[in-house]
Amino acid sequence: MTDDAQTINALADEYVLGLLSPSEDMLFDALLTHDPALARQIGSLRDRMLPLDLSATPAPLPSDFPARVRGSLPTQDQGSPVAPPNAANRPNAPKNWVPRLIAASLVGAVVGFSGAGLRQAPTPTVVAVLVDANGVPQAVIDDYGNDTANVRFVADIAVPPDRTLQVWTLPSPEMGATSLGTLDRAAATELHFSDLPDPGAQQLYEVTLEPLGGSPTGRPTGPIIGKGFAASQI
């Protein structure tokens, strides 16, 4: 791996944490559309951080916060500008070279994809975060609306030898709960199914623990591991 590639991978953490500047963030967004490997890395980072995001309780800023910030800033004379200090969580800031590096990587990615004849990674139609009864995230489902979906687990789920995980969705009350596939363990899996309408916002998804081989009735029968409603991505 080249030094530039290693640096781009290191910047992925700052991108997910929201530490890049607006211009750097826009360039990184463009780079992701042309680099599926980097996009998968970002998705994995977000999955690992998702439980922390969802479990955090919003806290209001103290009333004296503006005054404390002003008091911590260096003083400056009228004609003697003071260079802004480096952010504590970005020891090398300001990184004026970051936009140039991302832009150069973006150009390389576009040229590489054009030469290889590869297509841009698809965007899911909807994404659903499935949580348990306590609100703890268990899995994330990306539904592409083309009879394909991905399920990724963000929690450790033990599956007994005589049981099967089964993924479900509710396309409509008339259709009822419909299976998207079964899994013998909690691992990232691509699901394939047929004869379902395109998914929509607020569509219900869930994972249940069923008898070995899947539900004997074609409907959910076992305990719910996690469930959630879809958010549209297009």
Global shape: globular
End-to-end CA span: 34 Å
Rg calculated over all Cα atoms: 23 Å
Distinct helical segment count: 5
The amount of beta strand, in percent, is 15-25%
Strand order of the largest sheet: 5-4-7-8-1-2-3-6
- Characterize the largest beta sheet: strand count, sense, and whether it forms a barrel: 8 strands, antiparallel
Contiguous low-pLDDT stretches (5 residues minimum) are: 80-94, 110-118
Structural class: alpha+beta
Structural domain tally: 2
Q: How many distinct beta strands?
A: 8
What value does the average pLDDT take? 77
Q: From the coordinates shown, what is the CATH architecture of the largest domain?
A: Sandwich
* Topology order in helix (H) and strand (E) letters: HHHHHEEEEEEEE
Question: Given this structure, which CATH class of the largest domain is correct?
Answer: Mainly Beta
Helix percent band: 25-40%
What does this structure look like?
The protein is an alpha+beta fold and 234 residues long. The chain has two domains: 100 residues; 107 residues, Immunoglobulin-like (Sandwich). It contains five helices and eight strands. The protein has an eight-stranded antiparallel beta sheet, covered by helices on one side. A hairpin with a 7-residue loop joins strand 4 and strand 5. The chain is globular.
Write the SSE topology.
Blueprint lengths: L2 H15 L4 H11 L3 H20 L9 H8 L25 H19 L9 E6 L5 E7 L4 E6 L9 E8 L7 E6 L5 E4 L11 E8 L12 E9 L2
Antiparallel strand pairs: 1-2, 1-8, 2-3, 3-6, 4-5, 4-7, 7-8
Helix pairs in contact: 1-3, 2-5
